[in-house]
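Can't paste images in this forum, so I'm doing it all in text. The chain is below; anyone willing to post the predicted C-alpha cells underneath?
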Amino acid sequence: MSVFAPEVARPTLVFRRLLGQAEPILITGGRAVADYREAFVGIDVAKLKNAIAVAESGREGEVRYFGEVDASYASMRRIIQRIAAKFDRVHFCYEAGPTGYGLHRLIQSLGHECMVVAPSLNPRKPGDRVKTNRRDALALARLLRAGELTAVWVPDEGHEAMRDLVRARAAAVETLRVHRQQISAFMLKHGRIYPRMKGWTMRYLCWLQEQQFDHPAHQIALQEMVEAVRVSKERVERLEKVIEEFVPNWPLAPVVRALQTLRGVDLIVAVTFATEVGDVSRFESPRQLMGHLGLVPGERSTGETVRRGAITKAGNGRVRHMLVESAWTYRHPPKVGARKLEIAWKAQTRLTARYRMLTGRGKRTTVVCTAIARELTGFMWAVAREAQAIRS
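Text version of the structure:
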C-alpha cells in the first residue's frame, strides 16, 4: 500500500519586467509573497466620533490619518470591514476609558485582534505639548506597530456586570462617608462633642436626635443630614445583599469562597479582588500581581546609588485600599477558624509574626499595614490559583 504525502505549495522563482530588467519574485500558492500586507490601526475613542489612523507594517511603512467617523456600532462595523478589506491582517487598539469594551467586542466578533491600552503606561515625549484626536490616533498606530503598548485585561460581559455592581457599592460607601463627615463637621462647628469614643452606633444616633439648637434652621439642617446618612446606609446594605445573592451563580464563586478563608478577607474584599483582578493565572508570579496593584516600592537608582521610596500606587486603587484595611487584622495573634485552608493558616502565622516584628522595629503602623498588604497579595494569588485549578 502506497502512502501519498499531501501537496504543499512550493515557492517558485518567476521574473517580471520592471524598468527594462528582470526582477525575481517568490510565488507561493499562486500568490506573490511580497503582496502580503499587514496594518496597525489606532483608534482615539470618544462619545460621538472616533479618530482613526492606519500604520502599515515595517519601519518605513506609511502612517496616515483615516479621519473621524461616527462612534455608533453600525458605523464602526462598516469602517472596520472597509479597512480590513485592504489588508491581509489588521491589528486594532484603543485606550481604556469611559466608552467601555463594546468596541473591543465588536472588533473581535469580526475576527480581528484588538488591544485595549492602559493610557497611563503609554510612552510620551516630555516636550510634546500638543494633544489632538488626530495626533493621539497616529501615536497609537505607531506604538502598536512598534509593540510599545501595554494592554489591560478585558472582562467578559458577565464579569463586567459583576464588577459594575461592586463598584456601585463602593460609590455608595463613599457617599455614606461624605454624609457622615458633614454631620461630624457640623456638630464640631457648634461645639457639640460626643462624650464617647466610638461613633455612628445606635447610641450615637440617639445622641444626635437629642440635640437642640436655638435657631430652627440649624435643627432642620441636622435632620436633613441625618436622613441622608440613613438613606445612604440603606443603599449600601441593599447592594451588599444583592452581591451576596449573585455570587453563588458567578463562575468565580469558588475563588471568592477560597479567598474568604484568609484572615481579614470577607465577602466584599474577596468579591472586589476577584472582579478587579480577574484571572490571576495571567500573573506568572505574586510579584507581578503586587506590581499590578501598586504595592511595590518605587525606585530611582543611577550608577551605584540606589534609592527606594514609597509604594508606586500605580495599579488598582480599589483593591489596594481594601488590602491595606484587611492588613490591620493581623495585629491580633493567629487563631484557628472553622474554614481555614493550609495556605490561609500559613498566611496568618507569617503575617501576624511579621506585623509584630515590624512594629517592634518602630515602624509606623501605616507602613507596617502596607507591607502586610503586599505579602497578603501573594497569599491571595496562591489561594486564587489553587481554587481556579480545582474548578478547571
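The longest helix spans residues 157-189. Residues 102 and 355 are 44 Å apart (CA to CA).
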